[in-house]
Structure prediction request, 952 residues.
Amino acid sequence: MLGREPAPRRALTLRGRAGVADRLGDPGLRLLTWLASGASMVLIALLVYKVFDQAGESISHFGLGFVTANVWNPVTRHFGAASFIYGTAVSSLIALLIAGPMSIAIALFLTELAPLRVRRPVATLVELLAAIPSVVLGLWGIIVMAPFLNNTLEPALRSILGWMPLFAGSASPFGLLPAILILTIMTVPIVAAVTREVFQTVPTELKESALALGSTRWEMVRMVILPYAKSGIVGASILGLGRALGEAIAVTQVIGDETGIHASLFAPADTLASRVASTYQGATSTLEISSLAYLSAILLVFALIANAIARLIVRRSTLRMRAAGPRPGLAVTVAEAQV
Amino acid sequence: MTPPERHTEQQDAEMSEQPLQQPRIIPRPAGEQPPAAQETVITPDTVTRPEALADGAPTRTVQLEGLRAFYGRAEQVKGLDLEFKANEVTAIIGPSGCGKSTMIRCINRMHEEVPGAHAEGRVLLDGVDVYGQSVDVVAVRRAIGMVFQKPNPFPTMSIFENVAAGMRLTGTRRRGGELRARVERALVDAGLWDEVADRLSEPGVGLSGGQQQRLCIARSLAVDPEVILMDEPCSALDPVATLKIEELIDELKQRVTIVIVTHNMQQAARVADRTAFMLDGRLVEVGPTQEIFTNPKDPRTEEYVTGKFG
Amino acid sequence: MSTAGAAPPPPGAHPLLAGSPGLRRRKLVNRTMESTATLAALIAVAVLAIVIASVLIKGVSAINLDFFIKSPAPFGQSGGGIANSIVGTALLVAMASVLAVPVGILVGIHTSEFARPSVASAIRFALDILNGVPTIVTGIFVFGLLVVGHVQSGYAGAFALAIIMLPIVARSAHEVLSLVPSSLREASLALGVRRWRTVLTIVVPTAASGLVTGALLAVARVAGETAPLLFTSSIASNLVSTNPSQAFASIPVSIFTLSEEASPAAHAQAWAAALLLIFLVVLLNVLARSVFGRSQARIGRTR
Prediction:
């Protein structure tokens, strides 16, 4: 207080070694990690740019009419996406239609019905289904599933429902139907896993209140779990949809690779992703390559929209649940499911 | 076979005609002709007090005989014999972990909802063992309601729908009027009608904590139970809300038997006719509340009520 | 307001024993729904069992020593194996990991340790977008970037795989690093240790097994990816190659091309390759989970 000199400052380090390196470390690490993040952001932007850039020749050649043109002829150099958009839409939506309720049922089984000891193993098995590489599933589809369908299910469906254009006959074992089934197999694990996480966030007291009023288990599910988890279920489904949209390999192996819009589920068809994949051995012209890029760009837009919608829905429901009390957030689990 | 009705048809019609704006006192019917002879499945393992059925009137008594409750292999309630008399409020007190919540959850068979949990022994409602072979757990929970520690109205439902939730389950088609009337009566009985009459379609979670808890009580009342179990119903509420609920309990006991678990001894002293003290899964002492607090017979009870532990 | 003194309800059947037609119907509905849910789970498990069984049965017969050490036989001849694909996959995955794992962990460190919350969520949002890009589109991107004007190469293939791995590693790194209790960081900082040392010597090592798990899961994912390689590293020689400036063969692409051929010999090799691939993927997943399980216990996280 009487004008004493302040004590000399000492740089404090664990090893007693004051050093330039030590002081540079902070900004150094910050910069390094910042660069990593920056590079990632640049990568994403670059990806979107490059895909559209490659599509440039085709875009300028065909314009937006490409989207509605139902043709793919490398010889005459006429290309159009309509048939593949149709194939993508139909296969993904129908697969989702089947996978959605099935996944909800599986999630309910895992959270409400199954005896404790059964839950972990069954959940792991369902997740394992998601880990099967799509090319293996496609191989199984080509050699086991498609012939089986062709020999047993399709004749049966055709004889009963063949009068409907949806089930009109076709000789080839490949077509929309096997593709839809394969996509269903791939989508169920994702939607089920996320839905299960959503169901696990339903507060136990709510479920107990319903049971204590004298409801059966199903009534409790209908009264409490499903309404509470509504947006989570929708988010999970759209997530699954996004995955189905982008699947190229397994689909191209069983779908028959044919251009054209047919009403029948048995007819060979193609999707955006699978058309691109099937041309990998070499396109015949730069216009074709560019048109493939155009298809990829359309697919990218679809997938990004589905992804964005799913995240939006999940974020809104996470906020609502956070407002109601501390509970594990969904955003984490949704992201996990994309793995 | 239908469960006994509480009103006559004529009274239902009267109620649905009158405008539902002001609170009214809805008198209970004085009694009516019993339905024609009904068949009851009586098996030796279910009925131990046939005299309870003799005059047909539910006596609203609950009797625990040798109740043991397990979580897996761990025994939480170790052989309990206890009686809850009709139209009385019985408080269960004891230190944390003594098994009081587990015990009352055995009464309406909520204990078995926990995976791996089970119970042994008997719980007799009006002489019939709720764990009996021919007894459906859903019926048990209609007759024995529960109010939980944390108020939990169904978040996706309005106030009206919350109260109506239990009634809608019976599956019997109800004319809109009757449903409304019973919802109103439940809200009146729960002391909430005044505050929500003009906003029945608003979400249940929009109410204050105390109001939410009274909503949950109304929800339980709406299905006409004989017994209501309350598991620390006021521990999440402020003192004013707590007081309202304690007053409510005092009124409700004319209609139902109430068992209330509480860690708050002053609360037990205020609301309960009889108090039971549990320790380590066993019943130590039970008796009129005054006696338990001023003149307990067991030294452990005395230690607890004088605050030496717990 | 209060209710008038309650008179005893009318006598009648005991409420516990009096059934009602409504109750029977409700129980029936309940039973039906429970059965449906159980059935759904059974179907899912059954499908898994069928697929795995097919791969096992059909693949086992074609597995022999040649399968592992020989390259594909010239066209028309039988025998041979997929040695080139095995080496190719190993190299591709290794190169992709060298690129994606460090960058991904750095991004994770950035979002969990340094970035402002708004910036962090923007980055994580962007990574989620990247994760949602269909892998065939990723392949087209790398094709346009690295292959057009040149040739397919191991570099291009590895880069495509790295792009797929990045969001997986980054997200899992972020999660695991966020789990490290802030009390640890604060204790270190309070001792006078600088931020960067705290992060590198305390936070990261604590989260180490979780980071390894994330990396393993990412590897398991890309080991089985075919689409990104189609345009970047698919037209490869039949000989075992370690030269990344040329395309590598890979197990998934081999399965793909073999599956499209008509000959039973090709199919047999495809099944064998599929068996190997599934074995690899399952092994990696199990490894990742057993490592993760230990780290969860250590950090003391409760779920």
